[in-house]
Specification:
Blueprint lengths: L7 E4 L2 E4 L11 E3 L4 E6 L13 E6 L5 E5 L1 E2 L14 E6 L5 E9 L6 E8 L8 E3 L7 E3 L3 E3 L3 E4 L9 H14 L4 E4 L31 H4 L2 H16 L3 E4 L18 H15 L8 E2 L12 H11 L6 E2 L1 E2 L15 E4 L8 H7 L4 H10 L6 E5 L9 H4 L3 H13 L3 E4 L25 H17 L6 E2 L4 E2 L6 E6 L3 E6 L5 E3 L4 E3 L2 E5 L5 E4 L2 E3 L20 E3 L8 E6 L5
Parallel strand pairs: 3-10, 14-15, 14-22, 15-16, 17-18, 19-20, 20-21, 21-22
Antiparallel strand pairs: 1-2, 4-8, 5-6, 5-9, 7-8, 9-10, 11-12, 12-13, 23-25, 24-27, 25-26, 26-33, 27-32, 28-31, 29-30, 29-33
Helix pairs in contact: 4-5, 7-9, 9-10
Length: 573
């Protein structure tokens, strides 16, 4: 008879198909930077299968490098079971070398282990993990070497993880992907709160009982059905190379969810290790976060958590805390490898005063991104002018403010996230209160503004070689004009409302120049210009303006809109 494989498990030294024939399977293969997964059955009796025994795994790369890791208990393997019901453990791993990998596993209680192998292939390979770009760490890059400009949207449907997956992928995820979004800020990645925020024009959630674990009891009460729903979405988006940054993070205390501080030290370590075992193999985990708006320096909370992540995440995913007021921050600490910022208290010392006067301005976004930089990429994850669903009603921000804040953040050498869902109370995928990727949404206009920035950064300049250098500007309003520069090669200047400016250009001829309308994307050619030297404000004598090199003056085509100026040397043929 013809044998059809049902499922594979690791048994002793071989990976065997459980079929009526008992035929041994071919060596499994997985795309490089994708997820290798295998199930192991352990029928031993344990009081708490989450924590009473550990599945320990050693992976060996084709190069010979050894990767010690561990597996996790998963109930019945399909989202069912609890600490005593189920017999399935899983191992997951993300290979980062093509070729034949081997592994051996063992149990901490002495139960017999086994070994196996799999192939990591270039076919169906993923892009890899987001890391700081090695050559210019203001920006992100896949594996630190392939620069990527983040086009990021804040997907706010906490309870959407319990809605029908096909509906979610068709009506939420795929439309964003079709518009070029390669990164999402999400609240459902660690399910700790806010479950009534789901898409009201979609099917009702299967459950609103989504709290990940009971307060203080992470090691015995993990809800496996919730993990299953999360992983289905993570896996689908991982296959499409869409990064995921968790906003709510590991601590539910800010949203009436399970509190990190209620966990003992052992429970905290379990929580981190279990999360890394389940999700660490997904390359698209693009930012572990503790929770929103915390100090950043507390060993008992976010800093201690980050050190645990640094210790146990063998893949070294991005990790951070969100700093609401980044004038003073802790992003220099080794436990954090990127910065997540908001734009509060950049100007005023009082929130009430700043809320209406400054939170919506482009300049506060620019400065927050600048001061957040400590040699690591900066992500503006809650810019008040960039978040329609919550902040626009509070700050009075408009779509013009959103466009200008997005440009200003980019000019600071930072990435940003935005949201265009109109109603805070009700969440919809389509229509007036839906995702702004659909034309019927009033904020579709803002999505077009973001499209223009994405086009400029990906096609008109080499963004990953540029740094913020507004000190190369003169004769301008510093609150309205900002510059991003690769000295002697390319210059990008953003001018709000057509504000005129002068620019110090390194010596040479620049004959590949255009004005870009920030509202429409339309371009106008600019005649060739000659540079007479960059401004070195650290050089002796440059406190005397008479000794400065000559700056080149520019006047945008009009004052009716915002303009970007790209000054570039023509590429060598």
């Amino acid at each position: 008879m013809r044998c059809k494989p049902i499922r594979y498990y690791l048994v002793s030294l071989l990976l065997i198909w459980l079929t009526g024939c008992g035929v041994m399977a071919a060596e499994p293969s997985v795309g490089n930077h994708r997820v290798f997964e295998a199930e192991i059955i352990n029928n031993n009796s344990y009081e708490n299968k989450f924590n009473d025994v550990q599945l320990l795994v050693d992976y060996v790369a084709p190069s010979g490098k050894k990767w010690p890791f561990w597996g996790f208990y998963d109930g019945d393997g399909q989202g069912g079971g609890d600490k005593q019901t189920g017999n399935v453990w899983k191992m997951r791993f993300m290979p980062n070398e093509t070729g034949r990998w081997t592994y051996s596993y063992r149990w901490s209680d002495g139960t017999k282990g086994g070994e196996g192998s799999f192939l990591s292939t270039a076919e169906n390979a993923g892009k890899g993990m987001l890391q700081p770009y090695e050559k210019n760490p203001r920006w992100f890059a896949y594996n630190g070497t392939e620069p990527v400009w983040l086009k990021s949207y804040y997907e706010t449907g906490h309870g959407g993880i319990a809605q029908d997956f096909d509906w979610m992928s068709d009506n939420v995820f795929q439309p964003l992907i079709d518009k070029g979004y390669n990164h999402l800020q999400v609240n459902w990645l660690m399910s700790l709160c806010c479950y009534k925020q789901y898409y009201l024009d979609g099917p009702k959630p299967d459950t609103l009982d989504l709290t990940l674990y009971e307060e203080g009891k992470a090691s015995s009460t993990m809800k496996l059905n919730v993990w299953k729903m999360m992983e289905q979405r993570v896996d689908w988006l991982n296959d499409r190379n869409v990064g995921l940054y968790m906003f709510i993070g590991f601590d539910g205390s800010r949203n009436d969810g399970p509190r990190w501080e209620s966990l003992s030290q052992d429970e905290q370590e379990f929580y981190v290790k279990y999360t890394v075992a389940r999700l660490g193999a997904f390359a698209n985990i693009a930012g572990w976060n503790f929770v929103w708006e915390v100090d950043g320096g507390r060993e008992t909370h976010e800093l201690g958590w980050a050190k645990l992540m640094q210790k146990y995440d063998i893949f070294n995913h991005l990790r951070t805390y969100q700093d609401e007021m980044p004038r003073e921050n802790h992003f220099e600490k080794d436990a954090y490898n990127f910065a997540a910022v908001e734009n509060h208290l950049i100007v005023a010392p009082d929130k009430t005063m700043e809320r209406y006067n400054y939170w919506r301005t482009a300049w506060t976004h620019y400065m927050a991104a600048l001061v957040g930089y400590k040699g690591k990429p900066v992500y503006m994850m809650e810019g008040n002018a960039l978040w329609q669903r919550y902040w626009h009603p509070r700050s009075g921000a408009s779509q013009d403010d959103l466009r200008q804040a997005a440009w200003a953040t980019t000019m600071a050498g930072a990435s940003f996230n935005w949201n265009g869902a109109e109603s805070e109370k009700g969440l919809y995928a389509r229509g007036r209160y839906g995702l702004p990727v659909f034309e019927e949404n009033p904020f579709y206009l803002s999505s077009q503004y973001v499209d223009i920035i994405a086009h400029v950064m990906n096609n008109e300049v080499r963004f990953h070689t540029m740094t913020p250098q507004s000190d190369q500007l003169t004769g301008h309003d510093p609150f309205r004009v900002f510059a991003l520069v690769e000295e002697g090669e390319q210059y990008l200047v953003f001018s709000m409302h057509g504000e005129p400016f002068s620019l110090f250009l390194a010596e040479g001829s620049y004959d590949n120049n255009i004005w870009i309308n920030a509202k429409t994307g339309e371009t106008q050619p600019v005649k060739p210009v000659t540079g007479y030297g960059a401004l070195d404000i650290s050089a002796k004598g440059n406190n005397n303006r008479e000794e400065w090199p000559r700056a080149v003056s520019f006047t945008p085509p009009d004052t009716k809109t915002d303009w970007a100026l790209a000054i570039r040397k023509r590429p060598q043929s």
